[in-house]
Amino acid sequence: MKKLFFINMTVLLLANACRNAETRDVAMINADRGFIASLDTANYTTVEWLDSLQNFGAIQEGDSIKVSFTFKNTGTAPLFLSNARTSCGCTVVSFPKEAILPGHTENLVARFNSKFHPGYTHKTIVVKSNTKNNINHTLVIEGTVIKKIGK
Questions:
Q1: What is the pLDDT of residue 43?
Q2: What distance in Å separates the CA atoms of residue 69 and residue 49, rounded to the nearest whole number?
Q3: Percent of the chain residues past pLDDT 70, beyond the cut
Q4: How far apart are CA 131 and CA 38, in angstroms?
Q5: Residue 22: Cβ-neighbour burial (10 angstroms; 0-12, 13-18, 19+)
Q6: For 114-133, what is each residue's pLDDT tens digit?
Q7: Which of 59, 95, 108, 109 has the smallest CB count inside 10 Å?
Q8: Which residues does residue 47 pair with via DSSP β-bridges, in sequence order?
Q9: What's the Cα-to-Cα distance from 14 to each of 10, 18, 121, 139, rounded to whole Å?
Q10: Comma-separated ranges of CATH 2.60.40.10 domains in the chain
């Protein structure tokens, strides 16, 4: 596994070799740390999602709601979230890009736009992380969107 890590790091360095020195240095400092951490399987950590299901109840069609999913790094290595995919373009996600240290708690925030989604809705978010208790974690937003009457 360490060989794979070093091979991938070499590829990243070679890909940046054509940039000027200043740009290359900044790029390496700001490299996708979550991606790099996902390659280092020997140092995976664990995460506990304190609320992986959020039910927003009932809202009017066209309204937007914001929900927050709380998670905790329960392992001994820094936790990185490297990606969050939603099941629909109606949901936008933001999550911490920096390391979450062992024992620390953070939030992933999702905003759901109910326009054109009347009725019961069930949206998923798949979060990728450097965790040994599964690298993909599924979060759910659900509730009822009351159809807008009129125009």
A1: 79
A2: 7
A3: 74
A4: 8
A5: exposed
A6: 999 999 999 999 999 999 98
A7: 109
A8: 73
A9: 6, 8, 46, 36
A10: 47-146
Architecture label for domain 47-146: Sandwich (2.60)
Write the burial class of residue 83 (CB in 10 Å: 0-12 exposed, 13-18 middle, 19+ buried).
middle
Q: What is the mean pLDDT of residues 63-69?
A: 98
Cα separation of the two ends of the chain: 59
**Conformation bin of residue 116: beta by default, left when phi > 0, alpha when psi is -120 to 50:** left
Mean pLDDT of 3-32: 50
For residue 109 the two structure tokens come to: 């925030």
Classify residue 34 by burial, with Cβ atoms within 10 Å: 0-12, 13-18, 19+.
Answer: buried
